Known about the structure:
globular, DNA polymerase, domain 1, Rossmann fold, three-stranded parallel β-sheet, two-stranded parallel ribbon, alpha/beta
Amino acid sequence: MDTIEDIADAANAMFEHFGLPLHNKTEYIQWVGNGIIKFIERALSDDDPDQVQTYVAAFREIYNRGLHHKSRLYDGFPAVLNELTKRGIRLSVLSNKPDYFTKKIVRYYLSHWPFHPVFGQREGVPRKPDPAAALEIAEQMNLEASNFLFVGDSDTDIHTALAAGMVPVCVTWGYGQMENETLVEEVTFIDHPGEILSLLT
């Protein structure tokens, strides 16, 4: 999902409400990927936990009203998801977005395909790159972790896949960045969603 414009709009509405500087989409892309609290901290450079929580609560409320205004599936994904479903390939989502938002986005945009389970950031469960949630997905599906393609766009996703014993696949689009060059040899890179199909055995 390409969700950055709705995230940016919600964050700027929140900052404007508090009389704080606004930011552009490029800046927001650099700050997403590790949950809302970390996202707000990066945008503010504010170490006051109470104040950060105030901003987080306001952002959640605003984003909840507008998370489906500009978000969209990346080009090429509907056809790939159709083919994966046709082949009986099981699909799941693991995100560092809060669980409520993750599930709401999946219901709104991905209801045509059988994604299950769908996990966002949940209280008491460490977020990626900790492998706990990824391994929980494997357990729920009753599949060995090594049978999963873990598709992501950043070091965080790759570390999660490797820690869980899953096969790491890194897309060359999205918001994340592969900053750790030592991971490159362990990762399969794809430039288009359709290439996922060629990785299936």
